[in-house]
Structure formats: structure tokens, C-alpha cells
Amino acid sequence: MLATTTFKGLLAAGIAVFLTCILSAPLQAHDVQIAAADVKKMPLVNVTPSVYVIHGMVALPTNENKAFINNPGFVVTPSGVVVIDPGSSTGVGEILLDHIRSVTDKPVVAIINTHVHGDHWFGNHAVRKAYPEVPIYAHENAIERILNGEDQAWLSLFMRMAPTAMQGTQIVRPDHGLKGGEALELGGETFNILYPVQKAHTDSDIMIEVPGEQTLFLGDVVMNQRAFGNRPHESQFSGIEEAIGIALERPNIKHYVPGHGKIGGREMVANFLSLVSTLRASVKKYYDAGQADFEMRDKVLSELDAYRDWYGFDNLGRTISFVYLEVEMDDF
Ligand SMILES: [Zn+2]
Ligand SMILES: [Zn+2]
């Protein structure tokens, strides 16, 4: 009982930090554009003849953007459709299903969720409504955390931020646990499940390689034109750097799908890697010179000037404290 209470307390504290961060973040130019966007018309991007992605808004969930803030994707295999991260709400999942039906009449045969964060898996509900037997895969750490209360915590958070957009969304948890290293045969296509490090963006990140389509789904290990998420306390920045290095070493991959921001090639991934490695090296340099995190903040930010236009840059000051803690831990 005590353990449960403590865990719920920690969850509440985490959410409070998240909300504080959101509420104190200045309105960025991106947000204004996003509010005016017609989410229904967001185009389906044909990555390869069989791989499709919809670019979600690089934003926090709001009613105006229909909480459409991740990149739902799908692969049309010889005998069915495999969905990866069907979105942040039932409504987003339904938009995705409309797009799937516009390109194929094959059924959805599997869903894969890249990690524990609700913006990637609340859309499971829409797909399960249409395909009640569909298996939903995720890393076993994601399933454990979701079962331990993070499902409700995420849903409550999103209901507060975008109540209209989240209307009707029910929790449909992933139910097929993965460890990483599996080669799943789904609909006649091979999906390699990579779990490159124990902790990167979270402790539950899988990357999904579709070798037949030369495509790698990166989850939130990589974001394009976005400086991390709002939960640096869950991340291990050395792990993010290592995981991206492994992603770039996979043979024959041409198409990389980040969790947020536009798809791209190696250059997009290398650009994000450069943000991570510059941030880590800069914090280490000033740590070695005996500076505290608040003393190095402005100098580190000036070394990251190339990323100033990225969404979330204003939150990087807070991220520096977490990177600092990692550097300090490595020093012991
Ligand atoms: Zn995430
Ligand atoms: Zn995300």
C-alpha cells in the first residue's frame, strides 16, 4: 500500500513538473500557425511504396490541433497493415484509419507502440474498435509502467490540456511485450525490434526496422527540429547518443521516421545526434572547469545556437540540469 501511495505521489509530482513547464513556456511562433491548421487535411506522406506517415504538429496537445502531435505511421504488408504509434487520441486514430482505407482495403493486423508516452498510443482505441482482435506490441517496460498507473496519469494530463480533442478516448493498453531483438513476421513482412540501450528517451524505447522498405521508425529517440520532449527527468542523454549511433549503423536504411517532426534521411538523424553530443560535451567541459549547472547555463546555450529555432529550445535550460546530473554521476 505504501509503495502504491509513494508511486502515485511520484507520478503526480512528475505531472506537476510537466504542467509547470508547459504553463511557464512562452508562446512560440509555431503555436500560432498550429492553431490555424486544419488537422483533417494533414497529408499522408508516402515514404516508400508501402510505408506511410502523417506528420503531427510539433506542439503540445490542444483542442485546436486535435492533440495531433505525433507521427502515426503504417506499413502495407502483403496480407495486412501494421500500424506504428496510432496517435494521441481516438480521434487521431480515426483520422489514421481513414487514411489507411484511402490506400488499401487490407485489414490492420498489428499495432506497435514505440514507448510508454501516451501521445504515441492513445490512438490504439480507434484501431481496436475497428479490429477487435488486433495484437498491440510494446516493450515490456512500457507495458509495466502503463499497468502501474501511467495510463491514467497521461490520460488525465491530456484531458486537462485538450478536453474536446480527447473526448471519447479510452485506454487500450499494449498487450504483447517485447524485449528487443525480435524479428516479428507480421502480414508477411519482417519487423526487426531494436532496443539498443536500457534507457534513452525513456527506459521503454524500441526502434522498428523494416528492412524490406529500408525504413527505421525511431520513436522519440530522435525528433526533427524539436529539442527533446518535456520530460528530461525520464531520459538518459548518454543513452540517446548511443542509441542514435546504433540507428545510424543499421545497414541499408534510407528513410528515418522520428517520433516528432518531419521524416528524413541520415542527415536529419545526424543533426539531432549533433545536438545531443554538443550538449553533453559542453556540459562536461564546464563541469570539468568546476562550474555549477546554473553558472554554465548561458554558455552552454550559446554553444547550441544552431538549434535556437527548434521547437522547445527555451526548455533546454532545464534540460542542462539533468545532463549535469548525468555527468556528475559518471564522475563518481
Ligand atoms: Zn516520448
Ligand atoms: Zn512523443
Low-pLDDT runs: 1-10, 15-36
Helicity, in percent? 40-55%
Looking at the structure, the CATH topology is: Metallo-beta-lactamase, Chain A
SS-based structural class? alpha/beta
Ligands bound to this protein structure: zinc ion
**CATH class designation:** Alpha Beta
The value of Rg in angstroms is 19 Å
Q: DSSP helix count?
A: 9
CATH architecture assignment: 4-Layer Sandwich
SS strand fraction: 15-25%
Total domain modules: 1
What general form does the structure show? globular
SSE ordering:
HHEEEEHEHEHEEEEEHEHHH
CATH superfamily: Ribonuclease Z/Hydroxyacylglutathione hydrolase-like
The total strand number stands at 12
The largest pleated sheet is described as: 7 strands, mixed
What gap, in angstroms, lies between the N and C termini?
34 Å
Which SSEs are present, and which pair or pack?
Layout: H1 2-24, H2 29-36, E1 44-46, E2 51-54, E3 73-77, E4 80-84, H3 90-103, E5 108-112, H4 124-130, E6 136-139, H5 140-161, E7 176-178, E8 183-186, E9 189-194, E10 207-210, E11 215-223, H6 237-249, E12 255-260, H7 266-288, H8 293-303, H9 316-331
Parallel strand pairs: 4-5, 5-6, 6-7, 11-12
Antiparallel strand pairs: 1-2, 2-3, 3-4, 8-9, 9-10, 10-11
Helix pairs in contact: 1-5, 3-4, 6-7, 7-8, 7-9, 8-9
